[in-house]
UniProtKB/TrEMBL annotation:
<keyword id="KW-0479">Metal-binding</keyword>
<dbReference type="InterPro" id="IPR006239">
    <property type="entry name" value="DPNP"/>
</dbReference>
<keyword id="KW-0378">Hydrolase</keyword>
<feature type="binding site">
    <location>
        <position position="147"/>
    </location>
    <ligand>
        <name>Mg(2+)</name>
    </ligand>
</feature>
<feature type="binding site">
    <location>
        <position position="291"/>
    </location>
    <ligand>
        <name>Mg(2+)</name>
    </ligand>
</feature>
<keyword id="KW-0460">Magnesium</keyword>
<dbReference type="GO" id="GO:0000103">
    <property type="term" value="P:sulfate assimilation"/>
</dbReference>
<feature type="binding site">
    <location>
        <position position="73"/>
    </location>
    <ligand>
        <name>Mg(2+)</name>
    </ligand>
</feature>
<dbReference type="GO" id="GO:0008441">
    <property type="term" value="F:3'(2'),5'-bisphosphate nucleotidase activity"/>
</dbReference>
<dbReference type="Pfam" id="PF00459">
    <property type="entry name" value="Inositol_P"/>
</dbReference>
<feature type="binding site">
    <location>
        <position position="145"/>
    </location>
    <ligand>
        <name>Mg(2+)</name>
    </ligand>
</feature>
<dbReference type="InterPro" id="IPR000760">
    <property type="entry name" value="Inositol_monophosphatase-like"/>
</dbReference>
<comment type="similarity">
    <text>Belongs to the inositol monophosphatase superfamily.</text>
</comment>
<feature type="binding site">
    <location>
        <position position="148"/>
    </location>
    <ligand>
        <name>Mg(2+)</name>
    </ligand>
</feature>
<dbReference type="GO" id="GO:0046872">
    <property type="term" value="F:metal ion binding"/>
</dbReference>
<dbReference type="InterPro" id="IPR020583">
    <property type="entry name" value="Inositol_monoP_metal-BS"/>
</dbReference>
<dbReference type="InterPro" id="IPR051090">
    <property type="entry name" value="Inositol_monoP_superfamily"/>
</dbReference>
């Protein structure tokens, strides 16, 4: 199915950017050494791969859509100080290797890539910091999560390169690159690596890691008892015990599937799980828009629904976070109301214990 939608060009550019970023992050994983990882203020890890991939994607977006603001996860402040010098040099090298790699079919030098697209250190830091937009309800803006699931990336498990275009608080384009995800879960011999992409109103598709051979995605129908829950590997990111109780309440039989990153949204769209449950573990944690925007449009276009635990749509127009949304629940259209009912029953039980 060719995408002839209003945002077909944006999708094409983002798939090209994510393809380059996946090659970059995979090569970083092969070579990652100890002093190439930092711990951020919130205690979460960030690697040279996160910074370099954000610089790469931000550069491509800025060259192609110079007036569009960017909401990116990372900022370069730790790289501008003396102690960040080694990491900075490595990031500049990695970003330039990715930017100047040969053009693939469909690529365009006007996007700021290809031999000759070399950038200075200052330009790379500036590209990272261009992701500092505060978000909000109006106009176009991009989100970049250069490596979603950094903890999974460091374990050699799942992670995802995630980019979205939000227009007036609605996600219009979402692209998720998953270098470590099986191409075909029913045939591991086909190897790993896929890019998932959706444009609102134009469907959800899986591509090869080269960005070719699209296959339409649609969430298979299941009865609620036949659901398989997808959840984070990290118990600090979403409550495993809450999900265990929802399983009991709904009479779900299958064991949960634990997976890092927005690969969970992609897996849901391929029928590898029936619902993605993400209930908070810490009071006051606000989910980040870049952790959910691409996944939201992918699931909706594959025939699903994404809401918070109250059944309200995620609000991508209140800033860099999802603000007052509480938890995230994604599932096929037919089972989503039943999953929300189960979630709310468990929430009521928890409240009655306080
Ligand atoms: N206490 C917390 N609760 C929920 N999400 C959290 C969290 N701390 C970090 N995260 C987010 O969880 C994301 C990973 O999700 P998952 O557990 O599904 O792999 C992280 O993305 P990054 O890895 O891009 O920083 C981070 O934004
Ligand atoms: Mg992070
Ligand atoms: Mg993330
Ligand atoms: Mg990240």
């Amino acid at each position: 199915m060719a995408n002839t939608s209003k945002y077909a060009f944006e999708e094409k550019v983002v798939i090209a950017a994510v393809r380059r970023a996946c090659a970059l992050t995979s090569s970083v994983f092969e070579k990652l050494i100890k002093n190439e990882t930092l711990v951020k203020g919130d205690k979460s890890p960030v690697t040279v791969g996160d910074f370099a991939a954000q610089a790469l994607i931000s550069t491509i977006l800025h060259n192609t859509f110079p007036n569009d603001p960017i909401v990116g996860e990372e900022d370069a402040s730790d790289l501008r100080i003396e102690s960040g010098k080694l990491m900075r040099e490595r990031i500049v090298e990695l970003a330039n290797d990715a930017l100047t790699a040969p053009l693939a079919a469909g690529d365009n030098v006007a996007w700021g890539i290809g031999p000759g697209a070399h950038r200075t250190s200052d330009e790379i830091l500036e590209a990272i910091d261009r992701g500092n937009h505060p978000g909000g309800p109006n106009g176009r803006m991009w989100t970049i999560d250069p490596i979603d699931g950094t903890k999974g990336f460091l374990r050699g498990e799942q992670y995802a390169v995630c980019v979205s275009l939000i227009v007036d608080a609605t996600v219009q384009v979402g692209v998720i690159g998953c270098p470590n995800l099986l191409v075909d879960p029913s045939d591991p011999s086909k190897g790993t690596g896929a890019i998932f992409s959706a444009v609102r109103g134009a469907g959800a598709r899986q591509f090869t890691l080269e960005g070719t051979d699209p296959v339409s995605l649609s969430i298979p129908k299941t009865e609620v008892e036949g659901l398989k829950f997808l959840e984070s590997v990290e118990a600090a990111h979403s409550s495993h015990s809450f999900n265990d109780r929802v399983t009991e309440v709904l009479g779900v039989q299958a064991a949960h599937v634990r997976m890092d990153s927005q690969a969970k949204y992609a897996a849901l769209c391929r029928g590898e799980g029936g619902a993605y449950l993400r209930m908070p573990t810490v009071v006051g944690y606000k989910e980040k828009i870049w952790d959910h925007a691409p996944g939201e449009v992918l699931v909706v276009e594959a025939g699903g629904i994404v809401t918070d635990s109250r059944g309200e749509l995620l609000n991508f127009g209140v800033g860099r976070t999802l603000g007052e949304n509480f938890g995230v629940i994604a599932a096929g259209r037919d089972v989503h109301p039943k999953v929300i009912a189960g979630v709310q029953q468990v929430q009521a039980e928890e409240k009655s214990k306080i």
